[in-house]
Write a structure and sequence with these properties.
The protein is an all-alpha fold. The chain is built from 17 helices and no strands.
Length: 338
């Protein structure tokens, strides 16, 4: 069975790569031959960017989400909880941040995951390390960054995201804020989903990958298109000098401003990365752009509203504050060294 799926997978991967490699030529032909736009104009630049990036990002997204769906069949919430339970706090912070990469649970999963972790003895700081890492440092973000910018930027993002998740969780753990968790959480009995002891075959895991594509891509494709549309506008019409002045390394206030702008926004990696690509192309500093991206993905008002069900307001403010400070420090650091 595994060999059969391996052969089919290789054939599909070859077809995927053949189509992916031709996207640039197709976008150029459609923009200047089919549509008839004049090369070098703002409109032509924006249109070519949009035509090229939409299928590119969606193809990457389908590929990654399919793989993520298979990975998630191994890392269910109960299994993740079992891995983290019983570990020392310092080890737990590191494990929790690493597990956040391979278990791409979104903010919608925050409440049930938080309850399950806390009620089975996972320390508060460790739980928050996981909740920071899972949305911010996930496979979708890393693979899209790798596809658009290369392994250096993807590696920088992963490394800094993990450091923020580990450090923020460790700091919050040291503050002993367990009393800032809603009282009803501690009296809730964790439930099992009934999947932990099931031994599912590889065909079922492939089916889980297909279902993940249908579910996740079905929910985020509009964010992708809108994000690329914004990026296309920036790419075609925003002057390079203007963007460099606002988000360049010489503007000391650009990093905290980028974080403040990013927090109220709500998007995901698939929607924000095309905007990041356009900003960098127009001269924005890498540290400022990474800080903006981290704040959009890792901190958002909808996440705060969801977490309010289980956390009291002081802990939410501390959680957001510690993470925001970490993101600002990362932004300044990369603007200084890159």
């Amino acid at each position: 069975m595994v060999i059969k799926y391996g052969i089919i997978g290789c054939a599909l991967a070859a077809l995927w790569w053949a189509g992916y490699a031709q996207l640039g030529s197709v976008a150029h032909w459609l923009t200047y031959r089919a549509v008839g736009l004049v090369e070098g104009t703002h409109l032509a630049g924006a249109v070519e960017f949009f035509i090229f990036e939409v299928p590119k990002v969606l193809m990457l997204l389908v590929l990654v989400v399919f793989g993520v769906g298979i990975v998630r069949s191994y890392f269910t919430p109960d299994r993740t909880r079992a891995i983290l339970a019983g570990k020392s706090e310092s080890v737990g912070n590191v494990l929790a941040a690493l597990l956040g990469i391979v278990t791409p649970f979104c903010s919608c999963s925050a409440v049930p995951l938080f309850i399950g972790f806390v009620t089975t003895g996972v320390p508060l700081g460790v739980t928050l390390s996981f909740l920071i890492s899972a949305p911010m440092v996930n496979e979708i973000a890393l693979v899209l960054l790798f596809g658009l910018f290369g392994w250096k930027v993807a590696g920088l993002y992963m490394g800094t995201g993990l450091v923020i998740a580990i450090f923020a969780g460790w700091v919050i753990g040291r503050l002993k804020l367990e009393r800032q968790v809603e009282d009803w959480v501690y009296v809730t009995k964790p439930g099992a989903n009934g999947l932990e002891d099931e031994r599912i075959d590889f065909a079922a895991r492939v089916a889980a990958g297909r279902e993940a594509v249908r579910d996740i891509v079905g929910r985020v494709w509009l964010y992708v298109v809108l994000g690329i549309a914004v990026g296309a506008g920036i790419h075609g019409y925003v002057p390079t000098n203007a963007m460099a002045a606002i988000m360049g390394r010489d503007a000391w206030w650009s990093v905290p401003l980028a974080v403040l702008i990013g927090v109220p926004m709500y998007s995901n990696a698939a929607g924000i990365i095309p905007i990041v690509q356009a900003l960098l192309g127009k001269g924005a500093a890498l540290g400022t752009v990474l800080a903006f991206m981290m704040s959009v993905i890792g901190l958002s008002l909808p996440e705060a509203i969801i977490l309010r069900k289980v956390l009291k307001l002081p802990l939410i403010f501390i959680f957001f504050g510690v993470v925001a400070v970490g993101i600002v420090v990362v932004g300044f650091l990369f603007n200084a060294i890159m």
